[in-house]
Amino acid sequence: MIDILAVGLGGGCGAILRYGVSRLPFNDAFPWATFVVNIVGAVLLGFLTGLTRERGLLPAPLQLGLTTGLCGGFTTFSTFSLEAWDHLRDERYLLAGGYVAASLVCCLAGIAVGMALAHLVIARTGPA
Predict the structure, then answer these.
(1) C-alpha angle with apex 95: 83 to 113, nearest 5 degrees?
(2) DSSP state at residue 22
(3) Could you give the CA distance from residue 48 to residue 15 in angstroms, rounded to a whole number?
(4) Percent of the chain scored above 70 by pLDDT?
(5) Which one, of 47, 18, 45, 11, lies nearest residue 34 by Cα?
(6) What ranges do the domains of the chain cover?
(7) Please, are residues 78 and 42 in contact by the beta-carbon 8 Å criterion?
(8) pLDDT tens digits for 36-80?
């Protein structure tokens, strides 16, 4: 039960941080807020995982709260990056490349499918 609470608390904090970064005044066509969040989240997840894997410095509930919760609520791209890194570290280069490529293609396709479904729902329910 403590693990669930740790993940929930961390996730809430991560989501609030994500929202805070999205409110920063980035005045450009490039999605800087998301870009920064993904990089910071990846660095933070790598650091926390390194502390835990190499030295076991974090107790399990704190590790879950910070990695799955905080980093997961802040950005899921960090988890994706860690999984790809693990494949590269283990010299599973084809699997790593396939995972990265398939994730990118399938997630972009998922966005397209979701948008199409939303348009269908809107078309069937009429104007707002």
Answers:
(1) 75
(2) H
(3) 18
(4) 98
(5) 18
(6) 2-76, 92-128
(7) yes
(8) 898 999 899 999 988 888 778 889 999 999 999 999 999 978 888
- Per the CB < 8 A criterion, the answer to whether 41 and 52 are in contact is no
**Taking the model in full, what pTM does it have?**
0.75
Q: What is the DSSP string of 63-115?
A: HHIIIIIIIHHH-SHHHHHHHHHHHHHTT-HHHHHHHHHHHHHHHHHHHHHHH
Q: Please give the pLDDT value at position 13.
A: 97
Dump pLDDT digits (tens) for 113-123.
888 998 888 88
Q: Locate tokens 């990089």: which residue?
A: 39
Cβ(84)–Cβ(100) under 8 Å? yes
CA distances 105 to 23, 55, 62, 95, 108, Å, are: 28, 36, 34, 15, 5
Structure-token match 């939303």, residue found: 118
96-111 pLDDT, tens per residue?
999 999 999 998 998 8
Which amino acid type is present at position 80? F
